[in-house]
Amino acid sequence: MDILKQFLGRLHPLLVHLPIGFIILGLLLQLYDRRKHSYNKVVAFVFLWAGIVSIFTCVSGYLQYLGEGYSFDTVKWHLWLGIATTIFCFLMYSRISGKPFLAFLKRFPIVLSSTLLFVLISFTGHLGGDITHGKGYLLEPFPNSVKSFFGYETFEEKTIALTEENWETSLFYEDVIQPLINNKCVSCHNPKKAKGELMLHSLEEMLKGGESGEVIVKNKPEESPLYSRLILPKDDEDHMPPQEKTQLTKDEITLIKTWISYGNPFNETIGELALNKELFLSFFPQKENNIYPDTIVVTAPTDSITLIKKFGIHVQQISNASNFLSVSCINKPSFGDNDFEMLSPIKEQIVVLDLGGTQITDAIFEKLTSLPHLTILRLDNTTLSGNGIAFLAQLKHLKSINLTHTNFESSFISPLGKFKTLQKVYLHNTEASKNEEQRLNGKQTILDYGNYELPKIAADSIIY
């Protein structure tokens, strides 16, 4: 008998959509036929069946409440409003069919009845969603100020405030793990709402576990539900947080694993645990990526820019707050060495220049020295060999050169060691050899040959 009760109760999520469909259909037909009332028999039939299936839905919902361990306080308003909706469907049937069994129904405006039924089904459905997905699930994407306005309890997000100066002296649990769990888990696991009887608002409660037992097995993250459920596929019903909630990032999951692996320490600092700094870099304040020269230049002549654009060269400001320009010949593959002179009127403003895929030769290197603020240079997919690249050492702001898919030769690697500001040279698919790197005087890291291999971390097994 218990098995049958549980089975019928679990039909509730299926049955619950039937009355909703009937009611919406009936209201739409009523709206469409509001003047002629020629569809009254059809509309009445729809509301009759809406009432009938609502009875089965209420019964299955009640059985689910009995069999799934919900408290009555959790389901009571959803239950009462479901019963009210059922009764109202039969009242609508009685009113529209012209056979009201209550006299006052004749005097009750049909528009008001329809509005009340729509409000009833909306609130009933919303409360059902709260039971299934957690209270406030509808407002989950919104900031706390919006949630508070609608009367939902919020948990203030805590910032993981790590810097170059304090990361080693910060407490691993209090300054990193606790804010992380508070931001992603506590909304469903707190004293007022403890899903699975699990509370995560404090370490003491976390160590107690929930109805399924402990969530932390010391030094064994793979056996700890607090970690193991995080790396399940998102469509797995045991995956945490639930699919509709904000998910933890790969870096955050790795930190949870590390904390459990180290025996879930409470009072130790990151430095005392000798943890790798790489684990925390994503939580450091992001430095402003101001790679361009810290200087002010006048606005480039508008007529010169217009003329250059007519030639097929793309010119645009790097930002509204700067007069520096980005110039690209992506739509001008015939651009050659002799065409470079047309850029002279805007040479002071150019910081990004893309000559990739054009007809330039090694003679271009000397010409490029006329661009005093050049920072990013793209020369990929050309026939350049690198002869003359030493000229570019004169450019005081040059940080990046892209030479991929060129004929760049190993013998021209050594001049790159004399570039004072150069940070990266891309040499994928070139003739350049790593054997020449020793000539760079310790600047080997500026060379990038591609073919990256990233180390695998535990969170890579998550299916998003």
UniProtKB/TrEMBL annotation:
Domain Cytochrome C Planctomycete-type: from-to ranges: 185-244
Keywords assigned: Membrane, Transmembrane, Transmembrane helix
Keyword Aminoacyl-tRNA synthetase tagged: no
InterPro entries named in the record: Cyt_c_Planctomycete-type, DUF2231_TM, LRR_dom_sf
Transmembrane portions of the chain: 14-32, 44-65, 77-96, 108-128
Gene3D superfamilies, per database record: Ribonuclease Inhibitor
Domain DUF2231: 11-132
Any Pfam family hit: DUF2231
Record flagged with keyword Transmembrane: yes
UniProt protein name: Uncharacterized membrane protein
